[in-house]
Amino acid sequence: MHNELKITDMQTLESNKKNIEESINPISLDLPDFTTDSYKDAYSRINAIVIEGEQEAHDNYISIATLIPNELEELTKLARMEMKHKKGFTACGRNLGVVADMDFAKKFFSKLHGNFQVALEKGNLTTCLLIQAILIEAFAISAYNVYIRVADPFAKKITEGVVKDEYLHLNYGQEWLKENLSTCKEELMEANKVNLPLIKKMLDEVADDASVLAMDREELMEEFMIAYQDTLMEIGLDNREIARMAMAAIV
Ligand code: PL3
Ligand code: FE2
Ligand code: FE2
């Protein structure tokens, strides 16, 4: 009798604790319905963006290796990871019964892709690294961190594995730019002025679809800014320089 009472008390306590946890952690609540047409429609574009982004990231690291041949091995490793990411996200779409809209995704990346190709042709390594290893990776990190909180269980697991790699990629660009800061600062600033606004536009373009997936625009921006500013700080830029660079997103 006494024991039974105790168990009931403990259950009540447990369920109270759970209610409190949920009320202070709204992130664990309100997962979207992954089976609705509207979810799948938005997912067909977002999934395509991610698949195309991973493919282009692969191609970009292979291209960057032509500008730093002695880094071929390391860059090939990064490129391989990107192909693994692409496979993972392709599986996420398949798992939900969604066909990715790849034409949309190619258009989505076309401006940034074009700028990367021009920089590559000119041998502008700093610009290539800023576009791929800083801006695109920080964009991916922000998107994946937000997505993990609202993803279906299958995709969540895959994305958690992917985002760990993306931090390594961001770090790769960061370390190169840090070592070469004295000679690449001017090009870095200039490339940022041209390309950060494109990232901002891309974020705006994806915001409506992302919100159908329960991903909040402000949260995406916040996560992006954290990854971006952290990296610039690690590269060795001062507060004023970082502020000036970030400002390029709003003008
Ligand atoms: C670099 O390794 C990959 C670059 C991919 C860029 C992705 C940007 C994603 C924006 C859309 C946010 C949705 C995330 C949902 C994942 C299925
Ligand atoms: Fe990736
Ligand atoms: Fe990456």
Give keywords.
binds hexadecan-1-ol, disordered N terminus, 9 helices, 251 residues, binds fe (ii) ion, 84% helix
Give a quick precis of the structure.
With 251 residues, the protein is mainly α. The chain contains nine helices and no strands.
Protein model, in words:
This protein is 84% helix and 0% strand. The protein is mostly helical and 251 residues long. The protein is globular. Bound molecules: hexadecan-1-ol and fe (ii) ion (FE2) (2 copies). The site of one fe (ii) ion (FE2) has 7 residues, from helix 2, helix 3 and helix 6.
Portion in helices:
over 70%
Structural class: mainly alpha
Mean pLDDT across the residues is 92
Query: Gap between N and C termini, in Å?
Result: 71 Å
Approximate strand percentage: under 5%
Specify the overall morphology. globular
The tally of helices reads 9
Please count the beta strands (DSSP E, at least 2 residues each).
0
Low-confidence stretches: 1-5, 17-27
Largest sheet: none
Q: Encode the helix/strand succession as letters.
A: HHHHHHHHH
* Ligand kinds: hexadecan-1-ol, fe (ii) ion
Assembly status: single chain
Radius of gyration: 21 Å
Which SSEs are present, and which pair or pack?
Blueprint: H1 2-24, H2 37-67, H3 72-96, H4 102-122, H5 125-148, H6 153-179, H7 181-212, H8 217-235, H9 239-247
Helix pairs in contact: 2-3, 2-4, 2-5, 2-7, 3-6, 4-5, 4-7, 5-6, 5-7, 5-8, 6-7, 6-8, 7-8
The chain binds hexadecan-1-ol (PL3) and fe (ii) ion (2 copies).
Residues 46-47, 49-50, 53-54, 57, 82, 85, 89, 92, 136-137, 139-140, 143, 147, 166, 169, 206, 210 line the site of hexadecan-1-ol (PL3).
